[in-house]
Design a protein that fits this description.
Layout lengths: L2 E4 L2 E8 L4 E5 L6 H5 L4 H4 L3 E5 L16 H14 L5 E6 L1 H12 L4 E7 L8 H12 L4 H12 L2 H6 L2 H10 L4 H10 L14 E7 L8 H9 L3 E6 L5 H4 L1 H12 L3
Parallel strand pairs: 3-4, 3-5, 5-6, 6-7, 7-8
Antiparallel strand pairs: 1-2, 2-4
């Protein structure tokens, strides 16, 4: 897999398929493969799919310091430039939406279309602030950290549908790694409200109606703040890429395959 230097980081990323680039940006704690790997082939038959691991995930290495939106955006920009420098369709999930919006606002020359899923813009949502604060405080209890993160990441219906054995496996995979904790710390500081009016790319914002991690009004507010933005909402918990994969893929395909 290619590795590109971006600031203080050496960013590891996957490349699949061929054609116009579509880059997927993962969220808190889980890297590109864990977030997007099961969906990538739905795009790789028509596009070059780029799957970077941001600092704190996978084989990407950095100095271990405090993460900022700007540092992670620079890592995405580095991957786009390393892959040829042509404009890509940029698809973000959760924290990845925050990063993707930042890239689109600061480097409009690199973003063709933009998809923001289950994202947010600033620190005003007290539910979100308290959620992240409690999650971060559970770092010393791996089981509680995993159960809280899983319980709020998925809707009740999804949790009840997968069976206890599979659910326990999901919980075990949701661990308080150093990278996950660095991401949560960043989540508590995020504020990109001043950047949203600068986004020029045609944008699709996807909200999750049953989201207990980043409540859906945050997605609606993102859409309102971005010109040339359309909005869609799915009946899903936060991790829509697993709860409603087919519906999510269709929304994104219909948006980025318009021409």
């Amino acid at each position: 897999m290619p590795i590109v230097s971006a600031g203080e980081a050496r960013v590891d990323y996957q490349v699949r398929g061929s054609g116009t680039g579509v880059l997927f940006v993962h969220g808190t704690g889980f890297g590109a493969e864990g977030t997007w790997g099961h969906l990538a082939d739905a795009f790789a038959d028509r596009r070059t799919v780029l799957l970077p691991d941001l600092a704190g995930c996978g084989a990407t290495e950095d100095d271990g310091g405090e993460l900022t939106v700007e540092r992670l955006a620079a890592q995405v920009i580095g991957v786009i430039e390393d892959a040829g420098g042509e404009p890509v369709d940029l698809v973000g999930f959760s924290l990845g939406s925050v990063i993707s919006a930042t890239v689109a606002a600061t480097r409009p020359d690199l973003v063709r279309r933009l998809v923001l899923t289950a994202g947010w813009a600033g620190p005003d949502d007290e539910y979100l602030r308290n959620h992240m604060t409690v999650w971060r405080a559970l770092a010393d209890d791996a089981d509680a950290f995993g159960r809280f993160g899983t319980m709020t990441a998925f809707s009740r219906n999804f949790l009840n549908s997968v069976g206890r054995e599979q659910l326990e496996g999901i919980i075990q995979g949701n661990r308080p790694t150093e990278g996950a904790l660095r991401h949560i710390d960043l989540n508590l500081r995020v504020d990109i409200r001043d950047l949203l009016p600068k986004i020029e790319a045609q944008t699709l914002v996807i909200g999750c109606a049953l989201d207990n991690t980043v409540p859906v009004p945050n997605s609606r507010e993102l859409s309102t703040a971005i010109k040339n933005s359309s909005y869609a909402e799915l009946e899903s918990g936060h991790v829509v890429v697993y709860e409603k994969p087919a519906e999510f893929v269709k929304l994104v395909q219909d948006f980025i395959f318009q021409d």
